[in-house]
Write a structure and sequence with these properties.
Elements (H helix, E strand, L loop, with lengths): L1 H8 L6 E4 L12 E7 L2 E12 L2 E11 L4 E11 L3 E11 L5 E11 L15 E13 L2 E10 L8 E11 L3 E11 L2 E12 L8 E2 L3 E5 L3 E13 L2 E10 L3 E13 L2 E12 L2 E7 L2 E7 L2 E13 L5 E9 L2 H6 L4 H5 L2 E12 L2 E13 L5 E18 L6 E17 L2 E5 L2 E17 L2 E14 L2 E2 L5 E2 L3 E13 L3 E6 L8 E15 L21 E18 L2 E17 L26 E7 L5 E10 L4 E12 L3 E17 L6 E17 L4 E10 L4 E13 L2 E10 L13 E10 L3 E3 L14
Antiparallel strand pairs: 1-2, 2-3, 3-4, 4-5, 5-6, 6-7, 7-8, 8-9, 9-10, 10-11, 11-12, 13-15, 14-15, 14-45, 15-16, 16-17, 17-18, 18-21, 19-20, 21-22, 22-23, 23-24, 24-25, 25-26, 26-27, 26-28, 28-29, 29-32, 30-31, 32-34, 33-34, 34-35, 35-36, 36-37, 37-38, 38-39, 39-40, 40-41, 41-42, 42-43, ...
C-alpha cells in the first residue's frame, strides 16, 4: 500500500505541493504538505494520518523510507494497532514488522481474557506502560527504559511498578530490575529484580511476588518463592523464608494430575533456628532459659492412583521432627493444636460382593515435647463379603475378616519404655434375617460367630508374654423399629409452611454375647478387644421427627426441620457399660453400672439458612453431664456465622492447684466465626476465635478486613495465639501476628507466606 502511495506521489510536479484533497492510501484530517527528499525518501508535514492493514499512525511530521517501510515520526505521535496504543514525542517505526522505538512514550495493551477483572470492578482489562524509551520488539513484547507499568488503567492509577529496566511480554512474563511498587504514588516496596508470569492459567515459570509479615514470636518475615510450570499436569514451587527472630526456612511443593484417578501433592520444609533466650516469671521471680540452635523439618502430602481391575491406591504423610515447631509455625487453630504425626497408605477394590482392603498406618500422639504414644497397623488387611441371600430363604450371609499387625508403644523422653505390639487375626461370619410382618414394624435378627487370634497375651501377673491366645464367642441380637406413629396437621395462618407431619419412631435392640473364658488374658489395644462376654445389652429409645411441606422458588419442597432422639442401654453385666463404643464416654474411666449414660440428640433446621446440632450424654449414676456438644450456623447471601460449645469429662485425675486435691480433668471449649461481605465481596471481614473455658484462655483470635475495587485490593489480618507449653523450660509467649495484604489486578497478592492464601480477603 505504501509503495502505491509513493508511486502516485511521483506524478506530482515540484518538490513541495499543498494538498487539499484525499491522496489514495492516506487519510487527511487537515492541510498538510509532501516533500520529496530522495528517490525513496518522503517527508509529510501537518496533521498526518497513515493507515496500513490494522495499523494507524498519527503525527505532526513523518518521514517515509519507501524501500524499507521505515517511518520516522515526530510531534504528537500515536500508533494504534489491533490490541495496543502507544503515544510518544517521536518514534522510529516499521510499517511492515510493526516494531519500533518510541521516545518519551506511554501505551496501553489489551490483556484480553488473561485476567479476571470482575473482582476489581475494572471494565477494560488493559495494561498501561510508560518510559523514556519504549522498544516494541514483537507483536506483544516491549522493552522499557526508566519507566513502569500497571494493570490499573485510570487517570490516576492506584498502583504501579516503576523500574530502570522492564521487559514486558504480555503473553508470557514481565521482568523488572531495580523496581518499586507504588500505591497511590507512594513507594511501598523495593525489588532488586522481579520476574512475574502473565498467562491465562497463571502457570508460567517465574518468581512470585515477595511476601511480608510480622509476628511477636518469629519477628519480621520476608518470603520469596519460585514457581516452575513443569508441564500442563505438573508444577513445583520452591520457597525461602527469613525471620528476624526465628532463623530461616526453605522448602518445596510438588503437585501433579496425570489423569483421571492419578493426582497428588507433596511438600517439604526445613527450618534452621538460632540460639534463643526465653524469659519466664514464677512467683514474681524472673528466670531465663536458653534454647540451643536447632534444625527441624516437616513433610506433608497425599496421593491417589487408580490401579487395574477397579482398585485404587492412596497415600498420605503428615510428619514433623519437632512438636514445638509444628505448634508455633502454623496459622490455624487445628494445626497449631495438633499433637500427632502420621503416615500411611491404602489399596482397596471390589469385585462382585467381595472387597479387599490393605492399609498401612503409623501414628504418634505427643503428650509432651518428647513423650508420645504410637499406634496403628503395619499392615492391616481385610477381606469382606457383602450380605447375599441364601437361595430363596429370607436369610442373608455376610463375612468380615481382618489381619492386623498392631503397633502400640509408649515413649518417654524419646525412648521406648513399653511395647504392646502384636499380630491379630479376626474372623466373623454373620447370618441375618430381616422381617417386616407389618408396614409399621421392622425386625432385623442376626447370629454371629467371632473368632480372634492374638500372637501375644497377658500372663497371670498381668505381664505381656509371647504366648498365643484365641478368643471365641457368639453374638445373637435383634433390632426392632416400630410401631411408628404419625400425625399430619395444617397450619392455619402465618408465613410458615402450611402442612406438617410428626413421626414418632420407638426403637429397641437386644444383643446377647456368650461368655468369654480368657478375657482377662487379652491384650486390649482397640475397641473390638474390650468385648465383655456373658452379658445382655438392651438399648431402648425414641426418635421424634417433624417434617414440613412448603413452596420455595416456585417448587414444592419437603424439609425435616426437627429431629429429637433419646436412648439408653441396660447391661446385665455392669462391666460392659465401660466399653460400649456407642457412647463416647464409655472408655474414659467410667465406673461399672447396669445403665449407660442417657444420650440426647437434637438436629434443627427451622429455615434453609439456619441449622443446629446438639448432643449430650448424661450419667444418671453421678447425676452429671459427661459430654456435650452444641453447633449452629446461619448463612445467607451476605453473612455466614458458625459457633459451637463442647464440654467433656476425660476421666483423668489431675491435681487441683488451688485445693491441692485430685480432681477429674475436663475439656471445655467454645468457638465461633462470622464472615460478612457486601457488593459481591468488594468489602467485608471476618472474626474467628477459640476459647478454653476450663483454663480461661483465649487460644486463638483472628480479625480480617478486606476491600477489593478498582484494580487493587487491601486486606488487614490480625491474629493472636496462646501456645500450649509442651516444654516448660522454654515458655513460649503469646504470639501476635499482623499481615497487610495488597492484591493487584493481573499481578497477584503480597502477604505473609504463613497467612494462607484462601478466600479470607474476598478473592475468588
Amino acid at each position: 500500500m505504501s509503495r502505491l502511495i509513493l508511486a502516485l506521489l511521483m506524478f506530482l510536479l515540484g518538490t513541495q505541493i499543498a494538498v487539499a484533497q484525499t491522496v489514495p492510501g492516506l487519510s487527511v484530517s487537515k492541510q498538510w504538505t509532501i516533500e520529496r527528499i530522495g528517490e525513496n525518501h518522503w517527508k509529510l508535514t501537518g496533521a498526518v494520518e497513515i493507515e496500513r492493514d490494522d495499523t494507524k499512525l498519527f503525527a505532526d511530521e513523518v518521514e517515509i523510507f519507501n524501500d524499507t517501510d521505515r517511518v520516522l515520526a515526530r510531534g504528537n505521535v500515536v500508533v494504534n494497532t489491533q490490541d495496543s496504543r502507544i503515544a510518544a514525542d517521536r518514534a522510529d517505526f516499521n510499517l511492515k514488522t510493526k516494531n519500533g522505538i518510541f521516545y518519551d512514550a506511554a501505551g496501553t495493551a489489551s490483556l484480553g481474557d488473561k485476567v479476571d477483572r470482575s473482582l476489581f470492578g475494572t471494565l477494560e482489562p488493559d495494561a498501561y506502560f510508560y518510559g523514556d524509551i519504549i522498544e516494541k520488539v514483537g507483536q506483544r513484547k516491549y522493552r522499557i527504559s526508566k519507566g513502569g507499568f500497571t494493570t490499573c488503567v485510570q487517570p490516576t492509577p492506584r498502583w504501579e511498578l516503576t523500574s530502570s529496566s522492564v521487559t514486558l511480554n504480555l503473553d508470557d512474563y514481565a521482568v523488572l530490575k531495580n523496581s518499586f511498587l507504588k500505591v497511590k504514588g507512594v513507594p511501598v516496596m523495593y525489588f532488586p529484580i522481579m520476574y512475574y508470569p502473565i498467562q491465562e492459567d497463571d502457570r508460567a515459570t517465574g518468581f512470585l511476588m515477595p511476601m511480608y509479615g510480622n509476628s511477636t514470636f518469629r519477628g519480621q518475615t520476608i518470603s520469596n518463592a519460585f514457581f516452575w510450570a513443569i508441564s500442563r499436569s505438573q508444577d513445583a514451587t520452591f520457597f525461602h523464608d527469613w525471620f528476624s527472630k526465628a532463623g530461616q526456612g526453605k522448602g518445596a511443593e510438588y503437585r501433579y494430575v496425570l489423569g483421571r484417578g492419578s493426582s497428588g501433592t507433596f511438600s517439604a520444609y526445613q527450618l534452621s533456628e538460632p540460639k534463643r533466650t526465653f524469659a519466664s516469671a514464677t512467683n514474681g521471680v524472673t528466670s531465663e532459659s536458653i534454647q540451643p540452635g536447632r534444625k527441624s523439618f516437616e513433610l506433608r502430602g497425599n496421593t491417589t492412583q487408580a490401579l487395574w481391575g477397579g482398585f485404587k491406591a492412596t497415600g498420605r504423610v503428615d510428619f514433623f521432627s519437632d512438636i514445638t515447631v509444628r505448634q508455633t509455625f502454623n496459622q490455624n487453630a487445628f494445626d497449631f493444636s495438633s499433637r500427632s504425626r502420621t503416615y500411611g497408605g491404602n489399596v482397596s477394590g471390589s469385585w462382585g460382593p467381595n472387597s479387599l482392603n490393605g492399609t498401612f498406618d503409623w501414628n504418634e500422639l505427643f503428650y509432651g515435647k518428647n513423650d508420645s504414644t504410637l499406634y496403628g497397623g503395619t499392615p492391616r488387611i481385610s477381606f469382606n463379603r457383602a450380605q447375599q441371600q441364601i437361595g430363596t430363604l429370607p436369610i442373608y450371609f455376610s463375612l468380615a475378616s481382618e489381619y492386623a499387625n498392631l503397633v502400640r508403644a509408649t515413649n518417654k523422653d524419646g525412648e521406648r519404655i513399653i511395647d504392646q505390639g502384636l499380630m491379630r487375626l479376626d474372623f466373623m461370619p454373620t447370618l441375618r434375617a430381616p422381617l417386616s410382618p407389618w408396614p409399621w414394624l421392622t425386625v432385623n435378627s442376626s447370629l454371629t460367630w467371632r473368632g480372634t487370634y492374638y500372637s501375644e497375651s497377658l500372663s497371670s501377673t498381668g505381664m505381656q508374654v509371647p504366648e498365643p491366645l484365641t478368643r471365641r464367642y457368639i453374638s445373637m441380637g435383634s433390632d426392632i423399629l416400630g410401631p411408628i406413629f404419625t400425625k399430619v396437621w395444617e397450619n392455619q395462618g402465618g408465613d410458615y409452611p402450611k402442612r406438617h407431619k410428626h413421626i414418632i419412631e420407638p426403637s429397641l435392640s437386644i444383643e446377647r454375647i456368650t461368655p468369654i473364658e480368657n478375657r482377662n488374658r487379652i491384650v486390649a489395644l482397640e475397641s473390638l478387644d474390650f468385648q465383655v462376654g456373658g452379658s445382655t445389652r438392651i438399648n431402648y429409645g425414641v426418635t421424634n421427627r417433624l417434617i414440613a411441606k412448603y413452596r420455595s422458588r416456585g417448587k414444592v419442597r419437603t424439609r425435616e426441620y426437627l429431629i429429637v432422639g433419646i436412648n439408653q442401654s441396660y447391661y446385665s453385666n455392669p462391666v460392659a457399660s465401660q466399653f460400649d463404643s456407642a457412647f463416647s464416654t464409655s472408655f474414659r474411666g467410667r465406673k461399672p453400672s447396669n445403665f449407660s449414660p442417657i444420650q440426647v440428640r437434637i438436629k434443627a433446621s427451622p429455615t434453609e439458612q439456619l441449622d443446629g446440632n446438639f448432643r449430650l450424654e448424661w450419667d444418671p449414676d453421678i447425676s452429671a453431664v459427661q459430654n456435650m456438644r452444641v453447633n449452629a450456623s446461619y448463612a445467607n447471601t451476605y453473612i455466614r456465622t458458625t459457633g459451637g460449645w463442647s464440654k467433656q469429662n476425660l476421666g483423668v485425675s489431675i491435681l487441683d492447684p488451688k485445693r491441692g486435691v485430685p480432681r477429674r480433668r475436663s475439656d471445655n471449649f467454645v468457638h465461633g466465626s462470622t464472615e460478612a461481605h457486601v457488593l459481591d465481596r468488594m468489602f467485608g471481614g471476618s472474626y474467628r476465635f477459640n476459647y478454653d473455658i476450663g483454663q480461661r484462655n483465649m487460644l486463638q483470635q483472628r480479625i480480617v478486613l478486606f476491600y477489593n475495587a478498582q484494580c487493587c485490593g487491601f486486606g488487614i489480618d490480625y491474629q493472636t495465639f496462646n501456645f500450649p507449653m509442651l516444654d516448660p523450660r522454654f515458655p513460649i509467649p503469646q504470639d501476635r501476628r499482623f499481615n497487610f495484604t495488597i492484591t493487584l489486578a493481573g499481578i497477584g497478592s503480597i502477604s505473609n507466606f504463613f497467612s494462607g492464601q484462601d478466600d479470607t480477603f474476598g478473592r475468588r
